[in-house]
Amino acid sequence: MRAEKKLPNITSESLKTTITRFVIAVIFSIAFAYIESAVVVYLRAIFHPDGFTFPLSNVDTILQHKALLLTEIGREAATIVLILTGAWLFGRNLQQRFAYFLTIFAVWDIFYYVWLKVLLDWPASIMDWDILFLIPLAWAGPVVAPVLISITLLVFAMIILYRDSYGRPIKASRIEWLGFIAAAVVVVISFCIPGRHITEPDYQSHFYWPVFAAGLLAAIVLFVKCLLKPK
């Protein structure tokens, strides 16, 4: 009788290694998120002693503290550098590094709000608004929006890492990459538009859910298209 062929041990070991690295990356991201939320606790104590609520009424006061504002912008830039560095160290090839960037970014963003809930009991609702980013302009929107993006990115990352561990990387053409970039730009625009109206009473009306949804759904459709390509 012919002996049954067994799957090579390299496959299972590679998957086990991927899972281990993924778990470590998640732990790293959770700890990093605590650092981020702790900084925000201090900033709110300085600039929002009476509570952080929209519309913001003290933007002019914040703008007068140019040194602190530039320091905060520099911290945000350093955060992206740290995420990129962590992704580079966790991954062993370009696709893995991209997946770990998505992983660290997503877990960091989600647990940033988890830690703020623990430390400040905020947000009271996932529909509460937040200042999301300051580069190159102020980004703003309801908390649920960046969380939805992070959950999507985390799912993308897990699928990419799983496929890569079995030697079946996901392929994307140049046109598809341009589509991903366009989808990301649309999402960023959906945050930057309300970022210009955070001091106005009708600030909520400037977040256009159809624009945000179009960017997010476009990225999901493109990813599924790449995922379903023949081997």
Q: Would you give an account of this structure?
A:
The protein is mostly helical. The chain has one domain. It is built from 7 helices and 2 strands; from the N terminus they run ααααββααα. The protein has helices at 9-47, 59-64, 66-90, 94-120, 144-165, 174-195, 209-227; strands spanning 129-133, 139-142. The protein has a two-stranded antiparallel sheet with strand order 1-2.
Give the SSE map.
Elements (H helix, E strand, L loop, with lengths): L8 H39 L11 H6 L1 H25 L3 H27 L8 E5 L5 E4 L1 H22 L8 H22 L13 H19 L4
Antiparallel strand pairs: 1-2
Give the key terms.
single chain, 231 residues, mainly alpha, two-stranded antiparallel sheet, 7 helices, globular
- Share of residues in strands: under 5%
Radius of gyration: 20 Å
DSSP, total strands: 2
Task: Detail the poorly predicted runs.
Answer: 1-12
Principal-axis shape equals globular
Fraction in helix: 55-70%
* Sequence of strands across the biggest β-sheet: 1-2
Strand count, sense and barrel status of the largest sheet are: 2 strands, antiparallel
Helix/strand order, N-terminal first: HHHHEEHHH
Structural category is mainly alpha
What number is the mean pLDDT? Answer: 89
Total helical elements: 7
- The multimeric state of the shown protein is single chain
